[in-house]
Amino acid sequence: MNATTAIDIEKIRAQFPVLHQKVNGKPLIYFDNAATNQKPKQVIDALSKYYEGYNANIHRGIHTLAEKATKAFEETRHAMQQFVNAKHVEEIIFTRGVTESINLVASSYGRAFLKEGDEVIVSGLEHHSNIVPWQIVCDEKKAKLKVIPISEIGEFNIDAYRKLLSTKTKIVAVNHASNSLGTINPVKEIIHLAHDAGAVVLIDGAQAAAHLEIDVQDLDCDFYCISSHKMYGPTGTGILYGKKHLLEKMPPYMGGGEMIKEVTFAKTTYNDLPYKFEAGTPNIADVVALKEAVNFINSIGKDQIAEYENDLLAYAVEKLSAIPAVRLIGTSKNKVAVQSFVINGIHHFDIGQMLDARGIAVRTGHHCTQPLMDSFGIEGTVRASFSIYNTKEEIDELIEGIKRIVNFMKP
Ligand code: 7TS
Question: Are 367 and 287 contained in the same domain?
Fold first, then answer.
């Protein structure tokens, strides 16, 4: 089936109030979806419904509002369990998002189980949030950080990865899809090889959640991290999925209310999963609204979303490739709908600003992947990232904008 005919794009766009505005006098074209995507009305409504109708602190109260809020909060946990196909609901921990999820694992699992001389492997494609937490714990534990090299088209070098693995490898942490290049990584194979070496694997799913099917049981990953705001949900929340037996043996990440069973000055016992890792009042409203983001995605279907977005990506790549001054960065065949590029002689910031003047929002810079930019010998790129509400007409506008910039900046 042709996705462009199967999806009623106008109906989808109508669900996103933010899209219907002018920016700098031009209709907004939002191509910064890899940074954060826009929110459908049902997510926005869930937030105001919560605050207007049943705002209360969860788990602790026995009054009606507290019970209603707790029920809605826990319903999202079940929705996220299904979203990633986790075996147990208590394997879903609410965090502020991917950054916090990775820090939780690095701090808790890393501090508890890494020893001097152990090794942690990340890839050259990682976001800083999947590099720095590992550097911190490796420094502290005198462990070593090893890096899987990336090819010139932005793919993992699996042979080099095989060679890095050894009995010293204790943790492998890689992304499911790259935010700067869009490359979808062969995570199943990566996980399998890591397990053979006796290591646990964390997958950074920030760029996968809105685009790819996620099945943590099929992948057999040990940890999987998601940010709500990159999957049509609110900012400030997300999940850590962790295998139960690992979460059970990990020490708490933060101490405080909710994560305890009993506190005395002599000794504190910790709560059961998932609460052991949810100290303090969580981001209740945003977690509640995240369920509506899952409902939105399910109402279209990940397959349909991927098909539609892949079509947009192929169109953009074809048009961008036809502009001689443009150099595409990240040209793997297997990608989510992200395209980075540079234009010879024009700084990416200038391109971003000139596109913004035409109402087109793209991201410029290193995209929190400085080591990746270094490996391409560049400082940064212009990145257009597409979502289910984007259209080919919008891509035409981007292309027109780029052509004008190239002509305008000609020496
Ligand atoms: N990992 C990847 C692959 C990401 O793309 C991002 C955010 C993160 C981790 C961190 O997620 P957070 O929700 O905790 O901030 N990526 C981007 C980006 O590409 N532009 O802005 C944020």
Answer: no
